[in-house]
Design a protein that fits this description.
mainly alpha
Amino acid sequence: MLKEKIQQDLLLKEIINRSNFTFKQLDYLLIQQSGNSEEKIFDKMLRANKEDLSKSSFVITRDRGRKNLKRALYSLIIAKYLGLLSSDCFLSLEKTVAILENAKDKKLNDYQSLQIVSALEDLIKHILLI
């Protein structure tokens, strides 16, 4: 599921590379989000990956992805609570995500994608107070 998106979207690939998620964690979370039962999800993964995949490794990787996402949210909350992030950090992030969602529907070339990544780096420097 994610593999096809990354092949067409350098911006997505660059953002994933800067995150705490593994490719497989994000892939499994996206498939889980599709709302299918765990059995159907596992079957999709077997067909998509064309590799040996045990159900337990699928569940472990998916659960690690969930845990990473939950910890990322708590990390933002505690950093804001302790004054490590600027007062407008969440508003800035929300505006940035809106711009990214708009860009997602456009066919960006590599230069445009890397310019957006550079702007994200600048935004993160602005938000961090450390």
